[in-house]
Amino acid sequence: MLERISACVIAFNEERKIRRCLQSLTWCDEIIVLDSFSTDHTVEICKEFSQRVYQHEWLGYVGQRNLVREMYTHPWILFLDSDEEVSPALREEILAEFDRGTGPFFGYEFPRQVYYLGKWIRHGEWFPDVKLRLFRKDRGRTEGQEPHDKVIVNGPVKRLRNPIWHYTYDDIRDHLETLNRFSTITAQQRFVQGEGFRWVDLLFRPPFRFLRGYFLKGGFLDGTHGFIVALLSAFGAFMKYAKLWELGLRQKRNFKELPETYPDHRARKLGIE
User: Fold this and answer.
1) Minimal CB count within 10 Å: which of 93, 135, 241, 273?
2) Residue 41 maps to which CATH number?
3) pLDDT one-digit tens code per residue, 148-205
């Protein structure tokens, strides 16, 4: 392989899933793990695969990605989440691409396929869920709004055919807990940025999210799994806008029982910093 790749994983308390993730990266030239002070055996497992295991307080998804980006020694970076795996077919496709030479491309994107409640999801909003995860360090950066990070590449990007495998929520309770956490983060971020609540968002966006995922994108083809995925995606949208409404209500009425973290001056106005 003419070009060398540094693989990066950010982790926190992922002892159940991270071994599979790291095993799928052993073909890379180095593996770097940035851990946020896990309290389980995550760090010990990571050190079985790499000595470049670091710990840093959580800076958010975007912050962690950009921090670990500066730790690389090779020109190409491959980002992978601790609950993901590079499929064997994708590994071979990447190696073949790099053996031929990357040519004019400064980044590669590929689909992500989700394993959910014992079944691979093949339709709906969850597939193909294309992600740009492989890029030249000098041409790429991580941006986005928490909790969703996005790699931006300055230059041509090529899409590969084979997927990353994503072993997502353990069960429906885990799914709901994640939706609750992410909707809180998103609502808080929009609130501190000055975005106001609109009834039209709360009324129409959740049902449209369901219709788009279940009917327009073929989620119904995944059977009951597809129905649950579409319904919970709509519920996540509902919670996001309901919490944005709640934050505005709290501001107007100066409620005392406020969420714990608001990072800027709007939080100080509410007396909750």
Assistant:
1) 273
2) 3.90.550.10
3) 889 999 999 999 999 999 999 999 999 999 999 999 999 999 999 999 999 999 999 9
CA nearest to 188, candidates 253, 84, 273: 273
DSSP string, 4-40: -EEEEEEESS-TTTHHHHHHTTTTSSEEEEEE---SS
**Mean pLDDT over each residue of the chain, to the nearest integer:** 92
Q: Which of 149, 167, 185 is the last residue of a domain?
A: 167
Residue 31 contacts residue 25 (beta carbons within 8 Å) = yes
Angle between helix 223-253 and 172-192 (nearest 10): 40
Rounded to an integer, what distance in angstroms lies between the CA atom of residue 153 and that of residue 144? 13
Q: Tokens 């950066």 identify what position?
A: 141
Same domain for 188 and 258, yes or no, is yes
Same-domain status, 14 and 138: yes
pTM of the model: 0.87
Question: Within 13 Å, how many C-alpha atoms sit on residue 238's CB side?
Answer: 12
Q: What Å distances lie between residue 237 and 68, 180, 207, 260, CA to CA? A: 31, 10, 9, 22
What is the residue range of 52's domain? Answer: 5-167
* Residues of the chain falling short of pLDDT 70: 1-2, 255-273
Question: 19 is written with which tokens?
Answer: 């071994």
98-108 tens-digit pLDDT: 999 999 999 99
Give the closest residue to 78 by CA, choosing from 64, 65, 89: 65
Cα–Cα dist 146/112, whole Å: 20
Tokens (6 digits) for 141: 């950066």
Q: Is 129:118 a contact under the CB 8 Å cutoff?
A: no
